[in-house]
Amino acid sequence: MWQRCTAILTAFFLLCLGTAVPASAEGNGGTRILPLGDSITDGFNVPGGYRINLWRSLAGAGHLVDFVGTGFNGPADLPDHDHEGHSGWRIDQIDAIATGVLRDTAPRTVLLHIGTNDIVQNYNLPGAPARLSALVDRIRAAAPNADVFVASVVPLSDPVLEARANAYNATIPDMVRSKGSRVHFVDMHAALTTADLADGVHPSRAGYDKMAARWASALAAVPGSAGDDGAPVALPSGLRSLRVTTPGFTDRYARHQNALGYTEHVDAGSSALLKADATWRIVPGLAGGCHSLESRNFPGYYLRHQASRVKISANDGSALFRADATWCGRSAPTGVRLSAWNFPGSYLRHVNSELWLATPGGSGPQDTAASLVPDIAWSVDGPWAP
Question: pTM here?
Answer without folding.
Answer: 0.72
